[in-house]
Structure formats: structure tokens, C-alpha cells
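WP5 quarterly update. Target: Aldehyde dehydrogenase domain-containing protein. Source organism: Brassicogethes aeneus. Length: 123 aa.
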Amino acid sequence: MFYSPKKLEVVMEKFYGGNSFTSPSLNKIINERHFDRLLGLIIYDNIAVGGPYDRTKRIITPTILRDCKPNDPVMQDEIFGPILPICTVKNVEEAIDFINSRDKALALYIFSKNIKVHDTVLT
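C-alpha cells (predicted):
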């Protein structure tokens, strides 16, 4: 595992304050339909951090999902909400193969201190 749920909680608490429900950095979901759609994407067994929500205020706290699979619903379309799915791979080559096997990447984030990994991914 490349991440630590405790470290993620600390970072999220620093960013959103002690209570993300009252943070000015967290916005309401636009409407009930999208709120329900987003809740349907959350794989509750895979929550690394986050997960709580308030239906009356249409707020979902930032939620990070670990060990997502390519066929999971959260991996099929753009999310447009506070959900970050993480797919675990063994190495950079497997990550590149995974990306290349998809229709198109809407975004790519590289979390590595190794400049060779950055260069390999970007070329």
C-alpha cells in the first residue's frame, strides 16, 4: 500500500478543518439526482478515508476509495464530485498498460518522488 489512511485523514483535516461539513471549501452537490448518482458510485467496502454525507444539505465529504477495479461503476464515467478512486498497480509499466487499455484518460496524476517514474509516464 503506497498510502496511509491516517496520513490522508491528517491532510484532509488540515485542508477542510475539523469538520468538513462546515468547511467553506466543500460545496453542495448541485441537485438530488446527482447526489444520489454520486452515492451510488461509492464502494463502501473500499473507503480509505471519508464517506459521511448529509442528504438534507446535499453534502458528501471528500471520499477516497482504495483498490478500485477497472469495471467498478466509479471508473466508468466522469465523477463530478468529491470522490477519488485509487487503482493499485505493481509498477509503472502496469500503470501505463492500464492507462493505454482505456478509451481515454481525462486526467493523470503522478504521485512519485522518483523523477524516472515521471519521465517514463510522460513519454
